[in-house]
Amino acid sequence: MPDMQTYSGGCHCGRVRYQVTTALEPVMSCNCSICQKRGYLLTFVPRAQFKLLSGEDDLTDYQFNKKIVHHPFCASCGISSFGTGTGPDQSEMVAINVRCLDDVDLDGLTITSFDGKSL
Ligand SMILES: [Zn+2]
After folding, report:
1. pLDDT digits (tens, 9 = 90+) for 8-24
2. Residue 119: helix, strand or coil by DSSP?
3. How far is the CA of 2 from the centre of ligand 1 (A)?
4. Which label site among 53, 59, 90, 106 has the fewest CB atoms less than 10 Å from its CB?
């Protein structure tokens, strides 16, 4: 298993900031309607490994389809740096947009394709 590390991340304007502890594996590129348009690279962590440091009041929630997953974005700069939802066992999960983490070499990641379009 790769090592877990604590990363900082957030939106473009800096209002939304968070910390997340993750091994950055797997990182998924998904072809579902929202991932494709937003260009997400996602990794998932249990809610306990995620801490929103600032920007809660700047987030606008966005939901679609079955409205199970929250896709919040910064109302100031429009960047969607994470999402929240529940895993198969109903535990709270956070989807981290790996593109929004500080100091991550995206070219060094192994990206797994996920066929979310077919779900
Ligand atoms: Zn912002």
Report:
1. 999 999 999 999 999 99
2. coil
3. 30
4. 90
- What pLDDT shows up at residue 101? 98
Among candidates 16, 20, 2, which has minimal Cα distance to 55?
16
58-84 tens-digit pLDDT: 999 999 888 889 999 999 999 999 999
Ligand 1 centroid–CA 8 distance in Å is: 15
Contact 15, 55 (CB under 8 A): yes
CA distance 117 to 119: 6
Q: 65 C-alpha vs ligand 1 centroid, how far in Å?
A: 25
Q: What's the Cα-to-Cα distance from 81 to each of 7, 9, 88, 94, rounded to whole Å?
A: 13, 8, 22, 11
The secondary structure of residue 46, as a DSSP letter, is: E
Please tell me the distance between residue 74's alpha carbon and the centre of ligand 1 in angstroms. 5
Q: How far apart are CA 55 and CA 43, in angstroms?
A: 21
